[in-house]
Input
Amino acid sequence: MYERLKGFRDFYPGEMSARRDAIDTLEDTARRYGFREVGTPALESTRMYVDKSGEGIVEELYSFEDQGGRDVAMTPELTPTVARMVVAKQQELSKPIKWFSTRPFWRYEEPQQGRFREFYQTNVDVFGSSDPAADAEILAWAADAMTDLGLTGEHFDFRVSHRDILGGLLESFDGCGSPDSQAGRNAARSGDADVDTEAAIRAVDKSDTLEKAEYHGLLTDAGLSYDQAERFDDLLRVDAEDLDELVEFAGTDRVEAAVTNLQNVLDAAEDFGVREYCTLSLETARGLDYYTGVVFECFDSTGEVSRSIFGGGRYDDLIESFGGQPTPAVGVAPGHATLSLLCRRAGVRPDEELATDYYVLQVGDTRPVAARVAGDLRERGHVVESDVAGRSFGAQLDYADSVNAETVVIVGEQDLENDELTIKDMASGDQTQVPVDEFPGDDDAPTYEDIA
Amino acid sequence: MYERLKGFRDFYPGEMSARRDAIDTLEDTARRYGFREVGTPALESTRMYVDKSGEGIVEELYSFEDQGGRDVAMTPELTPTVARMVVAKQQELSKPIKWFSTRPFWRYEEPQQGRFREFYQTNVDVFGSSDPAADAEILAWAADAMTDLGLTGEHFDFRVSHRDILGGLLESFDGCGSPDSQAGRNAARSGDADVDTEAAIRAVDKSDTLEKAEYHGLLTDAGLSYDQAERFDDLLRVDAEDLDELVEFAGTDRVEAAVTNLQNVLDAAEDFGVREYCTLSLETARGLDYYTGVVFECFDSTGEVSRSIFGGGRYDDLIESFGGQPTPAVGVAPGHATLSLLCRRAGVRPDEELATDYYVLQVGDTRPVAARVAGDLRERGHVVESDVAGRSFGAQLDYADSVNAETVVIVGEQDLENDELTIKDMASGDQTQVPVDEFPGDDDAPTYEDIA
Output
């Protein structure tokens, strides 16, 4: 009669249980790194997103005027909200500020595999440190979270880059390179190239999905000569050990600083034990958004999941642009839909089966004893179900089976006359009697095995 | 620069940690009862709420037209959504269906103490059982959740009633009672009273907040005579042991069935060990909403928190009205804002302090060793922070103190020359050396005490 909205999902218990496992894994890992959970609103002023991303963002938003005439939007991402929170308490928060949270976000986009209009992310951010160790800790958390999910280096790959390498190289093609550098000499030869850096970065960002000719076409449209486009493309394919070639080519402080910073982040990642998951990939640009330093995207190593699984990076200017004191920041936000595609592909998707430790089955008028037994088992932390529907013996046993109960405790009128309970192992079907006042006894999790 | 919206809240880590404790407690208790978590959308068709609650609901909703022209609303409550989910899979779900979830809901209401426009609830429902044990299991879960939070019978009170007792008594005043009953004889004497049952129930629902004269005025407005209003008021104050008086008074099957059902629910609550938290309170009507049987509300026993903390009850007609097969249902939805008011009043509010097991302090170029130590401790499940901001010794120690680190592991260049680490207990300030390859060693959680 009523339909779920397009791009929104219902999670029934099996699927929810797998999702909860994944969320718990990411959050436990974040807690162990000393990230602290924050709670954030689902609605914010639309202006916050327009100021950050331009008017164009509005058509992707669930935005509306509320009953009080405010222009509000269902949050499409977390970063502006946490930036607002940092600004609001910038004096009292001891830095570095390390926050995480898992929640839904909303974007009015066309749903496709791994993309929904309502989607869940675990956001993890460090505010107040420009040290390369902060970038590396974000990479380390992400890698640990992935391996805690059961994934390995065979399954995923962090493609790491630095925004200023792309920007700086393009700038040097634009004739702004040092005249002593190779780029400066090239630019002098070719005249003022007047490169549209943003258009060129957009082209790089899409290069994965384009034919080479088309890609080079976009680069030349952006103001590079044909030779420069070829050279630029070659430079972006440099190995991590040869990053110094870029410094030499550009001959600018900007590229030198970026290369040094990227090398320092990779060195810290080495110390943190996660360098092996990182590949240098200078094409990784993370759009034109607010990133200012190291950026990275996680990909399926096999390419079977063709989209980026998630991404992150450094955004040192956002807090200041939100009216705060200059505060460097770096973060990452794994989305659970794409992460679950990767886990499924890798065969490590968490179990969707329901788990039940005990089903306490009542036969006849035995509720007081059954309730006492169920209560005792629950106090030990077990998942315990009991009849709340006045079902027959057979119906209760079927239900216990449907919720994968490991042990069934049968509380029958006849048994009780002998002061006994029946303990049934559901896997084998074996059962045995136990005195009613010895169950559950001293054992934390008594099973048929323990009693028989 | 940007403001949070009115009625919405930011939860910084301390407050969030207390809130997470409360949510975990309610959810763990639900899991132990065999309730299964579900995940649900934040947006639904507005029509679902209008059909259930009438056009008037719209002004309380965050509703709008989405980019695709759909009339949508941010969910103001969970029940219609889970009803929709039950209907969508009614064939395949094994019954009883026992679901829980914690999430935010949204209503455009005037914020006041314990009421926000964005508010969090843990919803717990049983579908597919009309047995009184199902109602009692909801009461038992709620009582266990409250006591697991540290509350006791001194702090809270479940006021329990049955919708058909109120309705049935009013009906009998309306001349529909059995002619052999006392009500029937009364009605015959006074002529056809033509009672507006809904108006009378609304009056009862508000009776707590009204002067007696005003309350009786509303009852007479609803069609009761002055004597009937007095009598009705007396009847509602009956003790639990004397419920049979109501059956005798009304002389209708409806009141008899309701009284029997309520007694059975209270008997099951006795078996489940939670009868002591329940008080008979026939004024408890839970509005005019979809409730059909036993209803209850949780109140602060001292009355200091004057609002109802939360409520629940049986709603057997909703699934059918949503196009499903007739499916009895009973549920409850504690709101975390009022619950936190009660916990604060009772002095059992969870701790807002941050907890950190270890801070690994780096002095000089010791990151590889510090990272190894931090990693080993994290693998044992501890919360471990380490420097990611290139801070000085003193700044790191201040930070460790600000996050309440219990133990600081100092990894210094000089110590390392002797292959040692320094273990500092933050409470006492005591410290000692330990060989670097013996830490963390075999102990799960090595402290200064263990080593010195």
User: Anything to note?
Assistant: The domain at 13-40+75-165+238-346 of chain A is CATH 3.30.930.10 (BirA Bifunctional Protein; domain 2). Chain A touches chain B through 99 residues (CB under 8 Å).
